[in-house]
Amino acid sequence: MSVLSPEMIADRMNGRLVATAEGREEALLPSPCIQNHAAFLSHGKDALHCLWFGGSLEGKSDISIWRSTLRDGLWSPAEQISDDPARSEQNPVQFDAPDGRRLILHTAQEGGNQDACLVRMREAGAAPVDLDLPKGTFIRGPIRVRGDGAWLLPLFRCVPRPGERWTGSHDTAAVAISTDAGTTWREVEVPDSIGSVHMTLVPLGGDRFAAFYRRRQADFVHRSESDDGGETWSAPKPTDVPNNNSSLSAIALSDGRVAMACNPANAEMHPDARRASLYDELGEGDDRPNASGGCKPIWGVPRAPMTLCFSTDGGRTFPKRILVEDGSGTCLTNNSVDGQNHEMSYPSLVEGPEGTLDLAYTYFRRAIKHVRMTRAWLDAQ
């Protein structure tokens, strides 16, 4: 399998959705940034949108939120929609609210200090506001609307440790609930959730929700459940899908199944691939010791293959798995310039008309890749 250089990838970032020999359609989204990561797909009434963060390097203050729109088989030139010169703006979420507003939420942090992160929300074209959530709150998954109209925003909390540097060792999960259209929020904790992050909510019908988690421990995707609309949660328990301490995307399909896009790999499968932390390359003069106690985060497990997993039991097990793309998944550096990063990670999955699945993910930290799969193609796998 040939490996594309950063320059070769850049040459193909034209946004044109083209058919492949495998029977799918694929595109590399246009972007002026050398690093592009953390895609988020959203089906609006007008078109399919993709948001991500881009700049020179995750954690640096030139990282901002970008968006492109797919129309007539072509992704539009990337539009920059955030611009804080002092903070790294990451993990965008787009939400078309029931009241007609298009809202964009994202995180904002200084350097690698995720435990001091803010969550910001803006209406398209307006200035952002900081949500009334504790510092260190992070987001990644989409907002879900409960039957009574309340908004559920899945969170993970990078808990500050006075005098110590954030490493992910004390991260926990929670849901923020708003009953006033996003003006105020209250948090509901997920019990026994240390290390369970990137909470993603999947409606199971009525007031039932399942939640799926990336794991700092790089063991398995974990799952918990709520039977009361997110007001209480069971403790996360492992599924049968390995996890590499990288993001996943889970959705409820129109046929009743749960679909999850992820990298089914873990530390046990790759015992030698390790890096010290998420922000090795920042080189900041931070002489604080690493956070003590908590869980032991594992960084560097390969971020590949990109796989679709399907469940018929509400996400407890995922017996059917379809390979989307394979490769080494090497992620021992976040650098997007030297060509050493080969991850295919941070998927965002949405279902379109007639069972079509649209998937976007990070490609070598250089581009956002979009893959469109028809129901006929999926059924043939």
Folded structure, characterized:
The mean pLDDT is 96. This protein has a single domain, classed as Neuraminidase (6 Propeller), CATH 2.120.10.10. The chain contains two helices and 27 strands. The strands form six sheets. A five-stranded antiparallel sheet has the order 1-2-27-26-25. The protein is globular, with a radius of gyration of 19 Å. β13 (144-145) and β14 form a beta hairpin. The protein is mostly beta strands and 381 residues long. It has helices spanning 6-11, 375-379, and strands at 18-19, 25-28, 35-43, 48-55, 64-71, 74-75, 79-80, 88-96, 102-109, 118-123, 129-130, 137-138, 144-145, 151-157, 172-178, 186-189, 196-205, 208-215, 220-226, 237-242, 249-252, 258-262, 306-311, 320-325, 344-351, 357-363, 367-373. Residues 47-358 form the Sialidase domain. Residues 223-245 are annotated as: Disordered. This is Putative neuraminidase.
Determine the CATH topology: Neuraminidase
Contiguous uncertain segments of 5+ residues: none
Q: Report the strand count.
A: 27
Number of domains: 1
Task: Provide the spatial order of strands within the biggest beta sheet.
Answer: 1-2-27-26-25
- Principal-axes geometry comes out as globular
From the N-terminal CA to the C-terminal CA, the straight-line distance is 21 Å
How confident overall, as mean pLDDT? 96
| Biggest sheet character | 5 strands, antiparallel
In DSSP terms (H or I, runs of 4 or more residues), the helix count works out at 2
What is the CATH level 1 assignment? Mainly Beta
Rg, Cα atoms, Å:
19 Å
Structural class: mainly beta
InterPro entries: Sialidase, Sialidase_sf
Protein name: Putative neuraminidase
Pfam families: BNR_2
Region (Disordered): 223-245
